[in-house]
Amino acid sequence: MKVILPLPFRELSPNARVCWQAKSRMTRRYRKIAWAEALSVIGLRSAPRWKTAIVQATFYFTTSHKRDRDNLIASLKAALDGLADAGIVANDRGFIPLPPLQAKDAKCPRVELDIQPQPGVA
């Protein structure tokens, strides 16, 4: 399953120095975006509700400047919560994030989340 999202808002970075209200507002907004995109991918089928799922994030930025991978994963917390809200996994702690990949796409910055059930886990 592939879910395509806009890049996480700047306020969601662990290094962002913003008011807690702004961060909370952007967290809710990004979580809702992820939820809606996941539902559009699932369509009319029932949500899989996997116990665990492996997530490979690929970030497409407008420049080839490399970012800190730990911060990239942390900035996706709201997105993973939104995916769990949509029913992809039973609980958001069931996501197993792989180290993120980074690429350049000057015309369409985004993050693509490839989600697969963990093999051998029911």
Strand-helix topology:
Elements: E1 2-5, H1 20-42, E2 53-61, H2 69-74, H3 77-85, E3 95-97, E4 101-104, E5 110-117
Parallel strand pairs: 2-3, 2-4
Antiparallel strand pairs: 1-5, 2-5
Helix pairs in contact: 1-3
Give your account of this protein's structure.
This protein has 122 residues and is of the alpha/beta class. It has helices at residues 20-42, 69-74, 77-85, and strands at residues 2-5, 53-61, 95-97, 101-104, 110-117. Helix 1 crosses helix 3 (77-85). The two termini are 17 Å apart. The mean pLDDT is 95.
Please supply descriptive tags for the structure shown above.
alpha/beta; 5-stranded mixed beta sheet; 122 residues
Specify the structural class.
Answer: alpha/beta
Work out the helicity level: 25-40%
Distance from N terminus to C terminus (CA atoms, Å) equals: 17 Å
What are the low-pLDDT stretches, counting only 5+ consecutive residues below 50?
A: none
Write a compact overview of the structure shown.
With 122 residues, this protein is of the alpha/beta class. Helix content is 31%, strand content 23%.
